[in-house]
Design brief:
The structure holds two protein chains of two kinds.
Chain A: H1 4-12, H2 24-155, H3 162-174
Helix pairs in contact in A: 2-3
Chain B: H1 36-54, H2 65-85, H3 93-109, H4 122-144, H5 162-201, H6 208-245
Classes of the chains: A mainly alpha, B mainly alpha.
Chain lengths: 175, 249
């Protein structure tokens, strides 16, 4: 640095200030100070913070995508479950309807049968009653006819033969 | 700064803007003197802190505009380091990010009128380049031992020309910090000097509109250069770092 004043002289008289070596120690010293300060500002505060934000953002985005994916699959599952439930319900309803129909049919058949049986029983009973009435009517007619015939015979002065009268009545009624 | 013309003649002082000055008016610039360069380096620290720390204060999942930009810058440099230097270079990412942010903000802040551009100083760009160069040497030998020298032995070339290539590669290797430093410093220096030259022509009344147009055009170009040079310096750093980590071609 012995020629520093000379260089400074040259610089001030139109030479390049860049080649004024007398200022070099000053510039280099403050450059190093500046770089060290910038390095610490960046490496201690700015860069970790930005790296953190970037990582967080990537994490958040992939997280959100995963959540969205999960929600979508859950929605699909729910839809499938809903479909299945609907189909099950439909099948169940059909089954119940068919069963009810069959039950009603069975009950109906049973009722019908019972009714038939009752009707035929009633009919038989009625028939029996009619037959009895008829029989009793016939007996009454026979009796009345016998009595009447005997009375007629007595009135005509004859003697009524009970047996002959009964036989005659039977013969007439058959005809 | 082109001062007002004295005695009618055109006065161009395009290099005066690069002069260091004691902020408190002292004439000697010692090592610890607070200069205009120091001030603008400090501004770059403040701007970086505002951008990268205050801007990401919310740590929002859905980022604000500034946070989004800070994240994009982070991703841009991080991907550059991984793509160019390889996955194992991730641990050097904070250092490369420091370089990139400093150069980017120093370049952009230097575009403010009346500002000072530290990155136009070869003391600064040279120091940055040497730091990268020394780091590459240290990492290269620490990771690969003498295997690092295989960087100069290009096995894909025919055996006969390998020694010649080795000499060329060796020389080129030592030229790296020079080109690395001069590329950045020269670009910023030339752009800012050109701005002053155009501004100087504005002293001629007739040429003033054209000169001002030129200033606007060069300024636009400089905005581009500010970003590109920061990118170039950083990507070259990554390339050199790749050589240190994987010297085999």
């Amino acid at each position: 640095m012995a020629d520093a004043p000379a260089a400074a002289e040259a610089a001030s008289s139109g030479g390049m200030p860049q080649l004024d070596f007398s200022t070099y120690p000053n510039q280099i010293f403050w450059l190093l100070v500046t770089l060290v300060v910038i390095y610490f500002v960046l490496s201690r505060v700015a860069l970790p913070r930005i790296a953190g934000v970037l990582a967080e953002r990537t994490g958040t985005i992939s997280n959100d995508l995963a959540v969205a994916e999960e929600l979508k699959s859950r929605a699909e599952e729910a839809e499938a479950a809903y479909e299945k439930a609907l189909n099950d319900a439909r099948a169940e309803a059909q089954k119940i309807a068919a069963k009810t129909k069959a039950d009603i049919q069975v009950q109906l058949d049973a009722e019908l049968q019972k009714a038939d049986v009752e009707i035929s029983a009633k009919a038989a009973e009625s028939e029996a009653a009619i037959a009895e009435i008829r029989d009793s009517a016939v007996a009454s007619v026979k009796e009345v006819a016998g009595d009447t015939a005997a009375e007629i015979v007595k009135a005509l002065g004859g003697k009524a033969d009970a047996k002959a009268v009964a036989a005659a009545i039977d013969a007439r009624m058959k005809g | 700064m082109a001062d007002a013309p004295e005695g009618g003649g055109l006065v161009f002082k395009p290099m005066d803007q690069f002069k260091l000055a004691d902020l408190f008016g002292g004439s000697e610039i010692g090592m610890l003197t607070i200069t205009n360069s120091t001030l603008w380096m400090a501004f770059s620290i403040v701007a970086i802190a505002l951008f990268m720390v205050a801007g990401t204060r919310g740590r929002a999942i859905v980022p604000s505009r500034v946070q989004s930009l800070a994240e994009m810058t982070y991703g841009f440099v991080y991907n550059m380091v991984i793509d160019v230097s390889g996955k194992d270079a991730a641990r050097y990412f904070p250092y490369i990010m420091t370089l990139f942010m400093f150069i980017l903000f120093a370049n952009f802040l230097a575009l403010i009128p009346m500002s000072f551009s530290p990155t136009s100083q070869f003391a600064v760009t040279g120091m940055l380049a040497i730091a990268v160069f020394v780091t590459v040497l240290v990492i290269g030998f620490a990771k690969n031992g003498l295997g690092f020298l295989s960087l100069f032995w290009i096995t894909s070339a025919p055996t006969v020309v390998r020694p010649i290539l080795a000499v060329i590669e060796f020389i080129l290797f030592w030229m790296r910090p020079v080109s690395h430093a001069v590329r950045l410093g020269g670009a910023i220096l030339a752009g800012h000097a050109l701005l002053k030259v155009f501004a100087g022509f504005a002293q001629i009344t007739v040429a003033a509109p054209l000169a001002l147009l030129g200033v606007v055009a060069i300024y636009a170009l400089e905005v581009l250069v500010a970003g590109i040079q920061a990118y170039v310096f950083t990507i070259l750093t990554c390339v050199y770092l790749k050589d240190a980590l994987h010297p085999h071609h």
